[in-house]
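#dry-run=false #mode=assembly
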Amino acid sequence: MRWLLRKDALILARSRLLVALLIVYPVAIALLIGFAISRAPSRPRVAIVDETPPGQTVQVGSQRVDVHQYAHQLFSQVQSVDVHTRAEAIEKVKSAQVLAAIVIPPDIGSRLGSGVAQAHLELIYNGNALVQSLVQSQLRSALAQANLGFSEQIQQAAASAIDVLLRGGNLGVLGAPNLVGLSSIPGMLQRVIAHQPPGADRATLQKVAAFANFAAQNLQLSKNVLSTVGQPIQVRSVLLHGRRTPLDTFAVVVAVTISLMFVCVLLAAGGVALEREEHALTRLLRGLVSREALLAEKSSLAAACGFVVAFALLAGVSAFVALDWSRAGLWLAALAVGALAFGTLGVAIGALAREVRASSLLAFLLSLPLAFLALVPAGSVASGLYEATRVISFAFPFKASLQALDSAVNSASPGLGISVAHLAGLTLAFGVIARLGLRGAAD
Amino acid sequence: MTQTLSVESVGKRFGDLHALRDVSFDANAGEVIGVVGANGAGKTTLLSIIAGAQQPSSGCVRGPAMHNGRGIGWVPQQPAVYSKLSVAENLRLFAHLEGIAKPEPAVSRMLEQVGLQGRARELVEHLSGGNRQRVNVAVGLIADPPVLVLDEPSAALDPGQRERLWQFIGERAGDGTSVVFSTHMLHEAQLFANRVIVLDRGELLFDGPPLELIREAARGGGDGGGDRGVGPGGHGRDGADGGVGPGGHGRDGADLEHALVAFLEARGR
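#status=ok
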């Protein structure tokens, strides 16, 4: 087997295009994933026409908001381009210099300040459905934030007013007198009542004091009611099982597992098929090498190459995403077992397909759907279909390798031991299939 | 005379198809045996079974030096060598796989014998078809086997390369190697073989010297099967006496071709 390994390593080293692909492909995947994870999505260019008079403000309770400044803060999610007129904005949209334009009408301040009329923004856009969807999505998000921002400011103003009503003080309006706080009224009334003789007036004052006490207590509660109205629904997450896996590191695990699968499966399948194409398989199997040794050699070589490439990829991506290098031993174990399982799947494909092109095609046709099926989340398809995807994913090494690496990198469930045992079983099963595929190889 | 190979009642079935039926013959040291017959006669199947590349459905192949496919040099019809390895690397690899104690002297010897010393470092993919076939033959002979089996060895060669190949094979036979080869070129069998074996639809119809087949055909095909009695080693000829080598017999190859056609027609084949 040593000489076969040496021979295949030599052939691999001389197949420059193949080696280049084996290096370039995972590096490209690593860079794509890295950039996709580390860079925020680009902001669409949107023209802003602010028709409000310079310096216009909106009074919200005791606070005053500069409309122009607020508009720019509001549209921070887009790359804003200031234009002066609506016509100019339309021209920019037509000439595709911007994806869309937003017109802030001159009456927006008065409408917002009125408290009874809704303010309006005008959105002008062009382009295809994708562009429209992108712009609408961004602006809806911006508008939702704006509404929430105003709601919070109104809530704060109302809360301040309630505080003044409760504790007393000035509402901030020039010339207005200092108010007596509602919460101090019951005490004041009790002192007055103490000097009153029993009678109708005293009874009336006691009723007023009771009401003032009741009003002060409930006005305090209304602050909580206001915050509930401002954000009526809040999300509280409960994780039923499993450990939390950060999305970016999970993406890294997916990218590395896909690369590991392609390198191992293609190399192993091609290695076995190449022996047939070179007509050397018959010569080898007539007593020079056993079928088991040949399959073990091919799957080991493919696994070793896949292991090196996948580890390099993992290390490369760690430049973009923070990975816990203290767990590197577990990464290596997960990669090694996964690589061997993929290598064995590859030799099974090579033994059954019988020639390089067919085995490469079969490897691609099998690998891509396996990756997609393993990533189908529960609840996204009908339950019967989901069960079918689970069965298929269970019968091939992708999902188990993904789970093993996810466990090694992110401490995700199921644990590494379970995935490794699963992969060992699959390695054995595909080894048997490969051996059966080579049964008549020399015939 | 040393017997090196014994094919005993070998049969091979592929499903319902009988590729070989009860084929038996022996080979002695230095003998050159040509296996002839039409396409589908079972020539390649027979040679593959002798070489250990296929298992027979019935019967067996024996030989004093044979063990699990080893002891027989195998030169398949298509060069079974690695195109991304050099000539020397291919020989070295198979020398190691054959378990040769001292691989390097064996590699040098084979390079010299097939005349590729000057091209030892060239990748096989850069060689002509003829030179690839020489590497193919050299790999088959690297372990210095007592029996050499060649499946249509000259099919891809030009006349000059063919001549050199047969000269080389003749030299090996002269050194005592038993050679069994298949061919569609009957003049090669007539010129270089001591014995010819005629296969048709998996049956061995004739086993004897080429001249005897010609005489048989001239007599009108004999008794329609009596030649099957020509048994293993029945001719008692030494390969060296056959004068193996280009033109060694001084016979016209067309004779055997006509004789084979007449022989088969006489048997209703």
